[in-house]
Amino acid sequence: MRILFTGGSGKAGRHATAYLRDQGHRVTNLDWIVSDVPGITTLKVDLTDAGQVFNACQAYAGIDELEPGTGVPRYDAIVHFAAIPAILHRPDNETYRINTLSTYNVLDAATRLGIPKVIFASSETTYGICFADGEKTPDYLPVDEEHPTVPQDSYAMSKVVNEVTARSFQARSGIDIYGLRINNVIEPHEYAELFPDFLDQPAMRQRNIFAYIDARDLGQMVDCCLKTDGLGYEVFNVANNDLSVGLTNAQVIERFYPNVPLRREMGEFETFYSNDKARRLVGFAPTYSWRDALPSADREG
To answer: What are the Rhodanese domain coordinates in residue numbering (predicted)?
Structure first.
């Protein structure tokens, strides 16, 4: 497929674009920073400028596309990951403005230009737990896509708005638009750097609902969505299958969630950030785990 990928130079985007490249897709990266991933070309674009977005969506992906003499090929899909990635990077109003306006522009261009699929990055923060003022627990466990999304912060607010915007564009156009509520992204080298502390201090993971997503498995999820047509508008939690701490579910519940209702029985180490819908509807099958990445001595420590 010929794919336009926004934010491909970021933490999640670098791994997702590499995964898509390895699946044989042609990927053009729209970003402020040139990607250092081999085989990924970058077009520098300000996504808050609608004119630049519309132009980029109708541009050649490389000199080789001039050879047939048949004009600019159409992109098969847009994957929209570009965003201010969290609170405290920019003033709150700028985070909100950039994230919502860029998403509107991407969706507007895609639907007007006949690009048949958009996959966009939403966030775990939409559930209102990650950046809450003080401690907030889920309404129930495991957290699925039906859980209320009432956050307090500008970043998560922008993601909720983007989901509403995406639903409206899908209703207007009928194309497939899938939102990914991505949990805390972990790169391969971060297992050794971060997880020993997570095992020693499991409370560090409470704001992430004790979940995570390996950056490589996130790439797989994007590819699963590219290969799955006809769902219309959907949102998916994206997380690995297991907890990001060494405790069992029962131990986490006893320590952190004693008063949170449990909606179903769960596996001993099953994630509280349910990925059931993604596995069922698009065939998502995460393969990486911190348990395989860390030496046994570190896991036990």
So the answer is: 2-42
